Amino acid sequence: MSIGLTHFLVLSAVLFCIGFYGALSRRNAIVILMCIEIMLNAVNISLVAFSRYVTPVAMTGQIFAIFVITVAAAEAALGLAIVISIYRSRDTIDVEKIDLMKW
Amino acid sequence: MDTGVGITLAFWIMAVVLVASALAVVLLRNIFRSALCLVLAFLTVAGIYVLLQADFLAVVQILIYVGAVAILMIFAIMLTRDVQQGNLPSRLRFSSLLLSALLMAVMIVVVTNTGWSISAQPPSPDTTSAIAKAVFAENGGFVLPFEIVSVLLLAAIIGAVVLVREK
Q: What is the CA radius of gyration of chain A?
């Protein structure tokens, strides 16, 4: 059985759902950020797979993937800066205890 | 599209390693170990890019994710407590398991039942210059998003410095 577009898309869907489950079901803010990175990687796999199998010459999918990687790097840097800043002021990164804005 | 036995084998090995390491990121109790599994997952995604003949993106993936994002994660883990038993489940774990299983089922059904228009053209052998030509094309290409993303990176750097600066 040869590998086609569907294989990569199913792999991407499985990876996205693992990241989705982790982002919803964990308490540690750093683990939630890691799971968001896994979800972004899953999206990138499907973008590159579409670029390879549907538009092999136009390269649009790979360019989109480069932009996603850039935004993910900015998001990781800012997210971790916010986590460290919260840890300094509240001494915890448990998202169930960070409820100052919850009423 | 015909692929050889080597490609098929490589895909299945990488798919199993990728899913296993992503599950380890989510389920391991020790956060430092889950960060190391995240590095493995990023490296496997780079291998998948090589399989999809996106060599430039594979190198970018290793440079940015393995080289920068994963190191940032490990730094943040070291700067906070609760490394040993830090990865605790939250109150939402059963409902989120149900929700993500449902989402996965829906996505797999949709993906396998859609007739994708597979192109018969061979992919270009040199992706780096093809990407450069597409981004900086004569008719504008992706020059404006490229500039906007540069400004976004600058804003993110300044924002991160301001957030963690000692008062």
A: 17
Structural contact between residues B127 and B53, judged by C-beta atoms closer than 8 angstroms: yes
> Is A95 part of any domain?
no
CA distance A102 to A99: 5
Residue pair A30/A67 in contact by the 8 Å Cβ criterion: no
Residues recorded for chain B: 167
Task: Provide the whole-model pTM.
Answer: 0.91
C-alpha distance from B62 to closest chain A C-alpha (Å):
11
Residue A78 belongs to domain spanning: 5-90
Q: How many CA atoms lie within 13 A of B55 on its CB side?
A: 8
CB atoms within 10 A of CB B125: 8
Q: Whole-angstrom distance between the N-terminal and C-terminal Cα of chain B? A: 60
Subunit contact A67:B160, Cβ cutoff 8 A: no
- Is A86 within a domain? yes
pLDDT digits (tens, 9 = 90+) for A2-28: 788 999 999 999 999 999 999 999 888
A positions 38-97 inside 8 Å of B (CB): 38, 41, 44-45, 48-49, 51-60, 62-63, 65-67, 69-78, 80-85, 87, 93-96
